[in-house]
Amino acid sequence: SKEIILKVSEPMMNLTMKGYNINDNEMFTLYFSKKLKNVFESDQKFKKSLIKLKKNVGNFEKRFVKSIKKNKKYILVQYKGSFKKESGVDIILRLVAHTDKKVRIAGLTFISSEVPLLLSEKVNKKTKPKKLAKKVR
């Protein structure tokens, strides 16, 4: 149910966005899957884009759940987020349950008017963040 999903996803998002605000990469990536953490740690382009996103939109302030969708492999939680310099930023959290029964973040997308940003375990070169947002709407 949506309540159970939010019971798991909300604490994850709270800590992830706190890590974003205080520039703490360890906190930001705490709930990332191993694959996603490896992508984050090895992808300098993503880190630069995250810095650019923060410069353009500022610190995260609040969010509300826009939708929750499930498929065979993932749960997508879409938020509307407000940041210090921009409100109405789409934030898409992709959750996956691993064999150890722990739920982890397998993808995180920010769709700002300034800097769309997609971090995913599997980066599909054809999938742009704005297209992903349309898919989950």
How many distinct beta strands?
Answer: 5
Strand order across the largest sheet: 1-2-3-4-5
Q: Please give the alpha-carbon distance between the first and last residues.
A: 19 Å
User: What is the percent of helical residues?
Assistant: 40-55%
Order of helices and strands: HHHHEEEEEH
Number of helices: 5
Largest sheet: 5 strands, antiparallel
Shape summary:
globular
Mean pLDDT: 84
Low-pLDDT stretches are 123-137
Give the helix/strand class.
alpha+beta
Fraction of residues in β-strands: 25-35%
Keywords:
137 residues, alpha+beta, globular
Question: What secondary-structure arrangement, pairings included, does this model have?
Answer:
Elements: H1 2-21, H2 25-28, H3 34-42, H4 44-57, E1 60-70, E2 75-83, E3 87-97, E4 103-111, E5 117-120, H5 129-136
3D structure, described in words:
- By secondary structure, this protein is α+β, with helices and mostly antiparallel strands.
- 40% of the residues lie in helices and 32% in strands.
- The protein has five helices and five strands.
- The protein has helices at 2-21, 25-28, 34-42, 44-57, 129-136, and strands at residues 60-70, 75-83, 87-97, 103-111, 117-120.
- A five-stranded antiparallel β-sheet has the order 1-2-3-4-5, with helices on both faces.
- A hairpin with a 3-residue loop joins strand 2 (75-83) and strand 3 (87-97).
